[in-house]
Each structure stands twice: as structure tokens, then as C-alpha cells.
Design brief:
410 residues; six-stranded mixed beta sheet; alpha/beta; Nucleotidyltransferase, domain 5; metal-binding; eight-stranded mixed beta sheet; globular
């Protein structure tokens, strides 16, 4: 079965085409600047030069049509025709309390996703545009949605409720939801495989450190707590997000700077974090380079960033009464040896003993970066959210009564 995985943004769209029998990526790419007359489609196939096309793509329906044309292109394509796509899986950021697992799309699912627009106004409407665009271009192909929040629906109330009037939770569902759940699901399973231990016997702290960053306490294979909250703003310091702060700062800043609520929201989400403290960039690579060149603001940003990760790790060790492994994943977590070193140097109380040579190694496979004598293992486990979306979509379609009947008749 070939599964097309779509991650749709407001003006962009990423895609991966998987052959699920081998779990191999046949092609991948992205469409950028949707809505403009100079949109860019980038298409990649293994062992072939990257193909780049600039054209007018004014909406997501056209973007999906362009992707399908590229996948079936005589020279650059990997499929004979679009009927070779048997299923489409979508990443959707917010599933609220409505979804605790991946589901096939029907009218009721689309309605629920629309109801959640208020909780994820920047993401869910864009995901819905992707879903509708696929529906127009591939009307008979089953679609599934995999939610970033679903994995965290196992959190107990003491973890997900805020200490605010309960009526706000009952009426408006104001609570911690957590994000990066697709990544946590994949990485926790890969970690258990690497450690050769059953998931239900493990206490893991996973640090998903990218431009958006979070930590999660995974107890016996289930999310017990996570740093992001009702929105992705809470928790760790990030590339452009502030992370945790005193909520009184919001009305105080509005009053002192004569800002609107929207302006403060934009400041906290797009103009804070590494970018604000360093004054240079939201990119950890540029922060490290500037720090190593003696830039004091970059050094402070780096130290604040690592310190907050370390604080959450300590909190989650206490929350779970122990930990079996600490795991780094995502772009920064997988690639910044200097950040991992900075975090681990403050965890010696827990018995962490970093092996600096192992820490410097780059690999696409899970690896341990602590010494043989370290009392606590620290791992780097590359994430693969697209593969997990493809797997969930494949299983959902495979388990449909019609699919089962079709297979039995072959």
C-alpha cells in the first residue's frame, strides 16, 4: 500500500509518499508560498537531483494537484498514476479532548476539527484546507488524521488541569493538552526497542528540542506530563517563543507599552525566546557559533535555554519517582552536541556521566551518549513523525471492513 502523508500549513505544504510494505520513502517534498504567483514546489526522490519548480499556486487544492502531477510525472515521478495512492494521512495539531487516537476522516471528524479552530487558530484551519484539497483531488481515497495532542490524553487530571476556576475548564476546555505527541509516540517506542525493555516497565523523559521545544514524562508507555500547555507557548524557552513566564507580565506590558492583546501574543510567540535574548537569531546553530565567537548575549541565551531543559528534567524525575533514560530528539536535540553537553553537565546528581566522544557522533540510528559506568542512560533517538503518521494511516485503512474483505478475496 502507498500512503501519502500531508502536513499542511497556512501557506505551505509538506508531503512524504511511503510504500508501507517496505516502509520506504518513495518521494518527498514541499510547496511553499501558497497563495502567490511565485510559489515553489520542491520534489525529492532518492539518488536523484532535487527538482524545483516555480509557478502560480493560489490555494491548497492547486498545491495538492501539483504534488500529484509531480508524483506521476514521466521523468520525476514514482507512480504510474494517482490511483496508486491508496491512503492519505494528515498531521493535525489539535484534537482537544475529542480525539485520543488517530482516526479515519468522515463528516463527524471534520466537524470536530472545525470546532477546535479556536484552540489552534494558526494550525487547524490550515490542516482542514489540506484535508479538503485532498478530498477534491482524490475523492475516493480514504484519509486519516493523526493528532499532536492525542498521545497526551493519558495524562491524569493533576497533570492537565490548571489551578483556575473549574468553570473555565467545563465551559471552554481550558487545560493542558501538550503537543509533539506524534514524535513522543514514535520515539518512546524506538527507545524501548533500543533498550530491549518492555514499554510498560519504563520511565522515560523525552526532550523534543527543535525550533519549538518541549519535554514529556512518559510513564509505562503513556504520557504522564508534558511542558507545553493549552497552546505550544507554555514550557521551555524556544526559538521565538518565551515559554513559561509570570502571567501578570501580559497586562503589565499592555499597560506600560500601550500594546494590544494581539501584539503581546505576537511578541510572546514570534519575537521572544532565543531570538529575543540573543538579539541575533532563533537558530541554535547561529547561537552556538556566535557564543563560541565571544558574543555574551548569545551565551546567555544558550545558558537560559539549557537551564530550563534541565529544570524540567529534574521536575519529571520527581514526578515519576525516578527515570530509566533521558532521550534527546528533534532537530536541535539530535544535532547539537554542545547543547546536550550543557544539559547533562548539570545532571551528575542523577548519575549522568557523559561520554564526550559518543556525544559528538552523528547517526540516523538511536545511540547512547553516556559512559558504560553511567548510572543513568542518556540517548539520542531520531524522530520520524511522518513514518508514524503513515503507519497509523495504514493500519486504520487496513482494518476497515471493506479493506479486510478485499484482502480476503485476493
Amino acid at each position: 500500500m502507498n500512503v501519502l502523508v500531508i502536513n499542511s500549513g497556512s501557506s505551505s505544504l509538506k508531503y512524504h509518499l511511503y510504500n508501507m510494505e517496505k516502509e520506504e520513502v518513495l518521494a518527498k517534498g514541499r510547496v511553499e508560498r501558497i497563495g502567490m504567483d511565485s510559489s515553489i514546489l520542491t520534489h525529492e526522490v532518492d539518488h536523484e537531483p532535487e527538482m524545483r519548480e516555480v509557478s502560480e499556486i493560489l490555494d491548497h487544492t492547486t498545491a495538492i494537484k501539483k504534488v500529484l502531477d509531480m508524483l506521476t510525472h514521466r521523468q520525476y515521478g514514482v507512480l504510474t498514476n494517482i490511483n496508486d495512492i491508496q491512503a492519505v494521512g494528515h498531521r493535525v495539531v489539535h484534537g482537544g479532548e475529542s480525539f485520543s487516537e488517530s482516526v479515519l476522516i468522515d463528516q463527524s471528524v471534520k466537524l470536530e476539527i472545525r470546532k477546535l479552530f479556536d484552540l489552534a487558530p494558526l494550525h487547524n484551519p490550515a490542516h482542514m484546507m489540506g484535508i479538503m484539497a485532498v478530498e477534491i483531488n482524490l475523492p475516493d481515497v480514504p484519509q486519516a488524521v493523526v493528532f499532536d495532542t492525542a498521545f497526551h490524553q493519558t495524562m491524569p487530571p493533576k497533570s492537565y488541569l490548571y489551578a483556575i476556576p473549574t468553570v473555565l475548564y467545563r465551559k471552554h476546555k481550558i487545560r493542558r493538552y501538550g503537543f509533539h505527541g506524534t514524535s513522543y509516540d514514535y520515539v518512546s517506542k524506538r527507545t524501548a526497542e533500543f533498550l530491549e525493555r518492555p514499554m510498560n516497565k519504563l520511565k522515560l523523559i523525552i526532550c523534543h528540542i527543535g525550533n519549538g521545544a518541549s519535554c514529556a514524562a512518559i510513564l509505562e508507555g503513556k504520557s504522564y506530563d508534558t511542558s507545553m500547555g493549552m497552546t505550544p507557548l507554555e514550557g521551555l524557552m524556544m526559538g521565538t517563543r518565551s515559554g513559561d513566564l509570570d502571567p501578570a507580565i501580559v497586562p503589565y506590558t499592555i499597560n506600560k507599552e500601550d500594546l494590544t492583546l494581539n501584539e503581546v501574543n505576537s511578541m510572546l510567540n514570534k519575537h521572544s525566546g532565543l531570538l529575543a535574548v540573543s538579539g541575533i537569531s532563533s537558530d541554535m546553530r547561529e547561537i552556538v557559533e556566535a557564543m563560541n565567537d565571544g558574543n555574551e548575549a548569545a551565551k546567555l541565551a544558550f545558558e537560559m535555554y539549557a537551564y530550563r531543559i534541565r529544570k524540567y528534567i529534574g521536575a519529571y524525575v520527581a514526578a515519576m519517582d525516578g527515570v530509566d533514560a533521558i532521550v534527546f530528539t528533534a532537530g536541535v536535540g539530535e544535532n547539537s552536541a554542545q547543547l546536550r553537553k550543557e544539559v547533562c553537565q548539570g545532571l551528575t546528581f542523577f548519575g549522568v556521566e557523559l561520554d564526550e566522544e559518543r556525544n559528538e557522533v552523528r547517526s540516523s540510528e538511536p545511540r547512547r551518549i553516556t559512559t558504560k559506568g553511567s548510572k543513568l542512560s542518556v540517548l539520542v533517538v531520531p524522530t520520524n513523525e511522518e513514518l508514524l503518521i503513515a503507519r497509523d494511516t495504514y493500519q486504520l485503512v487496513l482494518n476497515q471492513p471493506a479493506a479486510v474483505e478485499s484482502i480476503s478475496n485476493e
